[in-house]
Structure prediction request, 269 residues.
Amino acid sequence: MGFSVLMSVYAREKSGYLKEALESIISQTLPPDEIVLIEDGPLTVELEGVIEDYKRKYPYLHTFRFEKNVQLGRALAKGVELCANELIARMDTDDIAVPDRFEQQYTYMMEHSEIAVCGGWMEEFNDSGTYLKVKRMPEHGADLYCYAKYRNPLNHMTVMFRKSAVIDAGNYCHFPYLEDYHLWSRILVKQGQICNVPKVLVRMRNNDNVYERRGGISYCGQYLRLRNLQKRIGLLNTREWIVASVITLQMTLSPTFVRKFVYRKILRK
Prediction:
C-alpha cells in the first residue's frame, strides 16, 4: 500500500520555498507514490513555473486548481477527496521534511492500525537558517488527550492520517486559522486515536510575524468559537471549557512580544 502527500499553495507563497519543500519530499528514504498539490486560486508566474517544472519531472505530482482563493480548509478538503491512497501525509509548501520522515510515519501507521492520525515534533528555523527551537509534543494516551483539550495536539505540517478516519469525522472544514485543531477535535470525539512520534519530522520556517498572526480580536473570536464547538461535541466539559476559554483570551489578546516570549521560552522545550 502506498501513500499520498497533500499540499496547498496560494499566491502569497514563495517559489523558492515551494521548491525546497518539494525536493525534501522527492528525496525521502521512502518517497510517496502520489503528491496532490491544490492550487488555491491564481498563482504567480514564479510559482506556476516551479509547479510545471516538477510536473514534467515527476508524473506522480498531480494538481487541482480553484479559480479563486477558497482558503485552506476548503482546499484541503478537496485534496483529501482527490488523494488515491488511504494514508495521506500533510506537508506545507514552505517547510522541509527530514529525510526519513515518511519512512518513520509509514512504518508506524502500518504497525498500528488503530491510529487515525500520527504527528511528530518540528524544528523551527528562521529565513537565515538559524535554529530556533524544537516543538515537542506528548506521545499518546491520556497525556495527549488531556493536552488536546487546551492546546492543538498535533503539529499540522507533520501529520500522516487515514483518509477514511478524516472523511468519517467530516473532513477538513472552512475554519480559518484553526482548520486542523477543528478536525482533530472531531476525530477524538469519534474515538479516533492520535499519536506523536517523539522525533523531529519537519523543519518549519518561523519568523516573528507568526506571533502576530496568533493574536488579535479576529483570531481570539475564532478560537473561542472553536472552544464552544469543543464543548458542544463533548470534548470539553463545562469546567474545562471555562479554563480553556480563559487561557485562549489571555494568549490571543496579549501583546505580540508577550506571546513571542511565552511561545519561545515556555511552550517550546
User: Anything to note?
Assistant: The two ends are 36 Å apart (CA to CA). The CA atoms of residues 154 and 208 lie 21 Å apart. The chain has a mean pLDDT of 93. The first helix runs from residue 15 to 26.
